[in-house]
């Protein structure tokens, strides 16, 4: 059973990211402030929901949350600042775009940088413990999946509509055969073996 909130603050924000471990595509974060009396439906950690349920819950979150935002950090910036910093920066951008300034930030994971002196707490596996983080995880996952489905049309040989940019065997084999694209993260180890890539 997910907890509704971690603090007594009215405007507690949950934030999470998707795509941190991918070889291609952006890292995407979302931030959500839910109302005190929110009917949670079947909201849960996005990884535990089917794509159909994630889409259904996304609509619920977007319609019933006090406010939400989503932000992508793209491949070039990931390569420049590293994936951890890119993930945190994406969360910061989301929080900054919220219509309401949060009084407290609840973060999925164990690393975060202070944001404008707003108190925060990191919760390991928080998307399976707190409703607002789970809601953020659903938004981050569905918006990122949409992006990967779109760029799949441009490079169908990598099958991003299925693997969403993660390092599956099929994806790595396609990299071996076709090389890398503008959507690949050049700072990541793209092959199982230590191979030189022609950038």
From TrEMBL:
Its main location: cytoplasm. It comes from the Bacteria. Residues 10-199 form the RNase H type-2 domain. It is an enzyme of class 3 (hydrolase). Keywords: Cytoplasm, Endonuclease, Hydrolase, Manganese, Metal-binding, Nuclease. GO terms for molecular function: RNA-DNA hybrid ribonuclease activity. Its cofactor is Mn(2+); Mg(2+). Manganese or magnesium. Binds 1 divalent metal ion per monomer in the absence of substrate. May bind a second metal ion after substrate binding. It catalyses: Endonucleolytic cleavage to 5'-phosphomonoester. Its EC number is 3.1.26.4. It is found in: Cytoplasm. Pfam families: RNase_HII (PF01351). A divalent metal cation binds at residues 16-17, 108. InterPro entries: RNase_HII, RNase_HII/HIII, RNase_HII/HIII_dom, RNaseH-like_sf, RNaseH_sf. Belongs to the RNase HII family. NCBIfam families: PRK00015.1-3. Endonuclease that specifically degrades the RNA of RNA-DNA hybrids. This is Ribonuclease HII. The gene is rnhB.
